[in-house]
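Morning!

This is the sequence you dropped in the shared folder:
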Amino acid sequence: MNRDDLKNILRKLKGGQLTLDEAMDALRHFPYHDIGVARVDSHRELRVGMPEVIFCEGKSDEQIIKIAQSMLTGGSSVLATRISEAAAKSLCKKFSRAVHNRIAHTAVIRKTGIAKRDLGLVAVVTAGTADIPVAEEAAVTCEAMGCNVHRVFDVGVAGIHRLTSEAESFDRFDVFIVVAGMEGALASVVGGLVGKPVIAVPTSIGYGASFGGLAALLSMLNSCSSGVTVVNIDSGYGAATAAVRILNLLKGQE
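The structure's back. Tokens below.
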């Protein structure tokens, strides 16, 4: 439930379009819905500007479906991250409008009859093609939460002209999410080119001395470009939600 949903219920109650019992029924899963396998946080979007998301690793297909059903019943869209092919197939079979992104390992079920939010424009930038799965997780999450996304893939520092050829369009973006493995240098380069928030995502892509993304993580943390924010290794979702928090704040100041 978001602010608009709650305002609509209260407006109808005040205007006599809903009885008190009907309003209470609409709020029956507020602030959370205990379904046994989980306590679904229906208050989260109202509280922090982002709905709860289903992290699918470690959950059975049945648990994922049950949580998704609770979220839909409560009026929320569903975003499932790190979902397996088998679990996604079960979810899509149960909910015909579910959209599975195999590259991002996500599934989205949008609530119907609600206009899409327009928080702003996020550029999701990758160093290499191998970084795209993490970048797609970030992009899908941003889109599910009301952002528009522009993908700029495979523009790493080994061929820096690929990035600079895109630079003329950078002023139109509100936030940059930069996804890179190996030594993670791309985040510093982008951070030195733009004055907008830059969120760096180290990936576990690279040869042995990259230590599963640790080298990229440390490079990004030690960036010479001031103000670059760094999230955890392979955390496209974490970068996206950081971007949404920034854009929620900017939207509230308009």
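Headline: The longest strand covers residues 121-126.

More detail when I'm at my desk.
O.
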